[in-house]
Amino acid sequence: MTDAARTRFDPIAPFGALPVPPGVDIVGLPARVGTLTAFHAAPSGAPRGTVLVVPGFTGSKEDFRDFLPLLAARGWDAWSYSQRGQGDSAAPAGVGAYRLEDFAADAVESAAIAGDGQPVHLVGHSFGGVVAQAAVLASPASFASVTLLCSGPHGWPGRHQETTDIVARDGSMGLWYRDNPDTRGLPDAALPIELAFLRLRAERTSRDNLLAGAEILRTQTDVTDELHATSVRALVAHGEHDDKWPIPDQRDMAERLGAAYAVIPGGGHLPQVEAPQATLAVLDAFFGAPPGPASG
Fold this sequence. Notes:
Distance between the termini: 39 Å
CATH architecture: 3-Layer(aba) Sandwich
CATH topology: Rossmann fold
Strand content: 15-25%
CATH class: Alpha Beta
Largest sheet: 9 strands, mixed
Number of helices: 11
Number of strands: 9
Helix content: 25-40%
Number of domains: 1
Structural class: alpha/beta
Order of helices and strands: HEEEEHEHEHEHHHHEHEHH
């Protein structure tokens, strides 16, 4: 960790047994809700700007642990944080503590901390893109740009209803065992390290976070016109095989935003994992483009 980082943040122990890539620090962002845990990869050479990644539904900062060093190698000061109720971040009690405006306020606050008061490039993945849209509307001046990665303009009735029903009845682990029944009763040592981590993350994920997030994903309203009116430069990007958000909706959102639009070859809903170099090329080109309105 750099001397500057030592003076600004308290170091945080790793969450789970996943190895942390070289050059990545684990720090605690001192937010109003409590400590939001973050990964930070300092840039190689002269800094080109700050990038802050907001992870998706059931996700955490760890979803971008191997991608941040790629951004840092291109000169970007790269951050990802676990949202309230995710992983080892602060998890207030009660569904009412997980309104969209609460998630958005955390993003604005985290941007101010990571960027040391300067505008940052905000990347919202999936549900994180919903949060990113709300954050930009709440504080446009906080952001040099916004990237909506595998995220769409609105929810739809019935979405994640089964998630809600299971979590309401059986908690976050009920959701895990629905999808991973073969792991029931097995010790971590009997599982691949990645699977053991994902189970731990499911165990530590707030039930209230999941219930509120599922409701947001069902009822999210289209704010594309309002987002366009902020004049914050935007990119809409998704993997060519993204199956979580309708691709026509994402393309239409980009057109209505006047945003840059990119389809990431080889990527699905997690293109930073499935096609990291292609994702890096798209994001690096967008972040590094001259300021001003993007053309689709």
